[in-house]
Amino acid sequence: MEDLVLLQIIQLQFQLNVLTLQRIRRRRLRQPKRRDPKRHIARKIFNQHLYECRDSGFQNRYHMTYSSFQYLVHLLGEKIVIDETKSLNSTGDPLLYIPPEMVVAISLRFLGGEKEKSLEDMFGPRRPSIDRYLDLFFNACLTTTEIWLQFPKTKDELTAVAMGFNELSDAKGVFYGVVGCLDGFLIQTTKPALDVCRDYWSEHYGCYGINTQCMCDPKLRFTYANVAAPGKTSDSLALDMCPDLTDWLRGLAREELDSGFYILADAAYPLTNYSLIPFSGSGLTEAQRNYNFFLSQMRIRIEMTFGRLTTKFRIFRGKMAYKHEKITRIFSVSCILQNFIIDNDTVDVDYEDRFVEHQGAFMHGVAPVLVADQVVGPDPLVYSSIRRSRLVELISQDAQLVRPLRNLIRNANINN
């Protein structure tokens, strides 16, 4: 009898506990959500912040002028607009709606090197929302044809680029015909999965990374950028993994060869009908050294392009801990934005101008000299030193085409 009474007491106690929990749950559902007041404030004052810093400090924060920022928002248009009804259902406050300007601002600060936690404190939305806004912005940039990277394809475009590079050279007219500078850029990443980590280890840089292949014009604009291969891959092999670039180079070599158009690259690439590379090794003649110097004056533009990229978008100065697909999108969008900034900003920005050797050197004006190879065989992407040999001969015949004194002194000190 006592056991039966005890069992009934336990059952009643259990039912009471269940009812208590149900009441607490209903009460919580009826209560409005408690929101972080800091996040309310961060969203509400954004427009005021954007307006106040438009004249001073805006470019340091968002890496472009205020007018370029507004034009970018206009250009991306409906692609970065968030549905107001969904926003209201999610936040319960119409003042917390995320405008397109904030989507662009969050994305630019992210590319500038800000971490997601800092973006939370700065703008208000939490990390999952920030990731959605970044995807929205990346998709908008990658689907807006007006800001896509483009090769110079027509005769007029190729001529304009060639004239731009010719103006940068102290040996004007000798290297006329350069329509791009090609080089690889390593995006540093964290250690990938164990089964592929050896492929991503770069012995040259001593870190894990992804090899990209890029080409630029004389204005430091990207005309091509592609996340090509794991970091272990050499530049010459990574170039073979860029079919759209090699197709363009084949067209350049076959169709425009009579006009003498070609690109510049470093010694990591092969010497072909479409490219010039410097001489390497010791025992070079004076004419070959002069050739290397004048070629480097123009080829350095791709190094300056990378320097500008990493200065404006500091996300590339650290190791990326994202998936390959996201890294590809980040890099592609950053290259697109660099071109957009150059085309629309009127204020010069300091960036790492390394290895620049030609400033103040002798300016030698001659008529443009078109030096071209003759294509033999079905594929023009073959080894050829004809153009380079002719340019060395041309430089050796002109006593004024010599390196400046400071370069001679520096090389003498290095050799000693």
UniProtKB/TrEMBL annotation:
- State the family named in the UniProt similarity comment for this chain: Belongs to the HARBI1 family.
- Which keywords belong to this entry? Hydrolase, Metal-binding, Nuclease, Nucleus
User: The DDE Tnp4 domain covers which part of the protein?
Assistant: 182-339
Q: Which Pfam families match?
A: DDE_Tnp_4
Q: Which domain of life is it from?
A: Eukaryota
Q: Which InterPro entries match?
A: HARBI1-like, HARBI1_dom
Q: Name one GO molecular function term.
A: metal ion binding
Q: What is this protein called?
A: DDE Tnp4 domain-containing protein
Write down the species: Fistulifera solaris
- Which cofactor(s) are needed, names only? a divalent metal cation
Q: Name a single GO cellular component.
A: nucleus
Q: Where in the cell is it found?
A: Nucleus
